[in-house]
């Protein structure tokens, strides 16, 4: 079976087709938002009063590693967002092919029996030394459809 994946660039405000990603920073936190032309202009208009009175901070060249890690995190987030959207689309398609009776009835006819045994699992102990300067890299979660 062939599968076609379509990733749409959508406006984060209203879900319409987006035309650009805008990046801004408030109190040291960098934000990115995908916007259509109307919303992008509206954001620029809102910020213009403050931009004209603000001081521009020079770009920091000393911390290229942090910049690279931020860029990698943004790319990972974009990939995760695409995977989530794909999984949601597959779920929508799967549910649209089910009879209405299957879609609305999510109750279990055989509820679970009473719990009779509890197993305690000891937490995993870390063997390698901790490095507080660098957080471990985590692999992004993988999503699958039903």
From TrEMBL:
Compositionally biased residues, Basic and acidic residues? 54-77
Highest taxon above the source species: Bacteria
Q: Where is the composition biased (Polar residues)?
A: 78-89
Q: Where is the Lsr2 dimerization domain?
A: 1-56
- One Pfam family, please name it: Lsr2
InterPro entries linked to this entry? Lsr2-like_dimerization, Lsr2_dim_dom
- Region Disordered: start-end pairs: 54-146
Q: Which GO terms describe its molecular function?
A: DNA binding
> What name appears for this protein in its UniProt entry?
Lsr2 protein
Can you name the source organism? Saccharopolyspora spinosa
């Amino acid at each position: 079976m062939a599968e076609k994946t379509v990733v749409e660039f959508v406006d984060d405000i209203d879900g319409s087709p987006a035309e650009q990603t805008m990046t801004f920073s408030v109190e040291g936190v960098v934000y990115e938002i995908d916007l259509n032309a109307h919303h992008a202009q509206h954001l620029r208009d809102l910020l213009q009063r403050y931009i004209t009175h603000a001081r521009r901070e020079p770009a920091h060249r000393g911390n290229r590693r942090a910049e690279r890690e931020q860029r990698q995190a943004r790319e990972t987030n974009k990939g995760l967002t695409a995977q989530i959207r794909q999984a949601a689309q597959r779920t929508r398609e799967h549910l649209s092919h089910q009879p209405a009776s299957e879609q609305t009835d999510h109750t279990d006819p055989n509820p679970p029996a009473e719990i009779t045994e509890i197993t305690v699992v000891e937490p995993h102990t870390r063997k390698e030394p901790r490095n507080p300067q660098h957080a471990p890299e985590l692999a992004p979660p993988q999503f699958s459809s039903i």
